[in-house]
Give the backbone structure.
Amino acid sequence: MSVQLVSVAAGAASAKTLEPTVVLDVGAIIAITDYFVISSGRNDRQVRAIAEEVERQVRERGGPPPRTIEGLNDARWVLMDYGDFVVHVLTDEARSFYDLERLWADAPRLAWDRDADRVEA
């Protein structure tokens, strides 16, 4: 079920931005979660909208609410912890500065299919 929800989260994020949404399989690298979903928006309003859409769609698909949501107040970097996966929604500027894709470059990047609710290596 978590892999399906990862795809739902990625699709929800992607639906609200023109920036690329990336899914990384970090489970073999870190023990705290299996997947990172990374997305970004142009400004704090768009970052909030992306985070809200992710939460709404995951909930509608029967997923749990996030265990925690951090960073929603200033919305430069919102972290949504679902346990098996973590959603990072950043402003474009913060995404470029922190460069999570480079930081976790050893993690396989997965293709995700919003319509089929699946991710693939």
Remarks:
- The chain has a mean pLDDT of 92.
- Helices lie at 2-15, 44-60, 92-98, 100-103.
- Strands lie at 22-25, 35-41, 68-70, 77-81, 85-91, 109-113, 118-120.
- The two ends are 17 Å apart (CA to CA).
